[in-house]
Amino acid sequence: MQQQEIGDGINFLIVFTGELLNKAGELLYMGLHPNEIISGFSLALQKANEFLEQIVLGEVDKAGFNDVKVLQSIVRTAIMSKQNGNEDLLAGLVAKACHTVMPKNPFNFSVDNVRIVKVLGSSMHKSEVVRGMVVNRPPTGQVRKVKDAKIAIFTESIDAAQTDTKGTVLLESAADLLSYNEGEEKHMEKMIKSLADSGVRVVASGSTIGEMAQHFLDKNGILSVKIPSKFELRRLARASGAKMLVNIKGAVHPDDQGFFSNVYTREVGDQRVIVFEQDEKDSTQIATIMLRAPTYNILNDLERACNHGVNTCRMLGRDGRYLAGAGASEIELARRIGEFGEKRKGLEQYAVKAFGEAFEVVPRTLAENTGLDEMEIVSKLYAAHEKGNINVGVDILGETIGDATSEELGNIRDLLAVKANAIKLATDVAITVLRVDHIMMSKPAGGPRMDARRGGHWDDD
Hints:
By secondary structure, the chain is an alpha/beta fold. The chain has helices at 2-5, 10-30, 34-54, 68-80, 87-100, 174-197, 211-219, 230-240, 296-318, 328-343, 348-358, 361-370, 374-386, 416-434; strands spanning 58-59, 114-120, 128-130, 132-135, 145-154, 200-205, 223-226, 244-245, 258-268, 271-277, 287-293, 321-324, 392-395, 400-403, 413-415.
């Protein structure tokens, strides 16, 4: 659910869920009834949502979505947890791509408008953003470059028409055979000629392009490409503004044609790709991040980090509020929920306090991964937050604590929507497990089992 709805915060969700279940196990060992734990967790979840609203650090307004640097600063934190050390490079690429296709209303931003193409070879510093699409395959014909290109997109093959049923043609002489072939050739030439006369200079097909059709496409200076993926064809149509046609019937109406400023073949490493590009003056609905790396494993890791960054931009358009990162917001929630639990009466106060203590797992994990003393870091964080410094988190580079919003720590910020949804899902999982009071197990089918210490079969007695 977290991956489908939010697209980020998976690690926090898993770690926090495990810690909640550990705390629930300790409470059960103490003698609390599951209903009391469920009641305490539910109450603590409500207070956590209230406290999250109170510790919001800031909000990105609509003007901020027009600034690449603002987007980069928010995306940087999401990418840092996956590609530490490369966050500035990847965040810049993601922010530029998202800014290119950002609609007037950021709420309508779609992750499908940002594509990622992986090209093996060279360094990741050679990665770039293209205003348009990059198809990872060469053209099928001899034409390699077209400027100010009108494009027609066909879902079926571009080839001579085939009959639905089998037919027999009676040829009585060589002249009949020659006449038959010439008739088919003239028909194809006429269709491609009318296609070129309508202004089309680029053709994309979702199926095969026949040899005869390819000959006349090259003769009329039309660049042709085969794109088997229907999803890629749809993106190409959306990027160019073209309508997807079923098959070629000759001239294409201007309303059905799309447009690209430049369409050209480019050699990237040892691969040839086709770039469908729009100039700065022409608007585009698709942007492509072309990633470069020496191995496929690195490319996959970079792609995963960029996907999380794009999803962060999507959630930013829905709720622009953000919190201090580096464990600062978690330790503040732990402190406030703990104080709230102390004031409660009844056995549910233990569940409330355990819910707050579960948030300590984030700074503890950060300290453990850095090689620091967990208890010392958590104690320092509590002391700093008691003094009102609610933005203080774990400084993994300085091996101490510091202001997570400062430039020294990298201005680490987490989205409120990501954090709130992960906390809700983790609590739902813990409560669902606690409500399981009986487990039914089916016994294996079959007759009596043979004793391993005895030989032979039990029916031989």
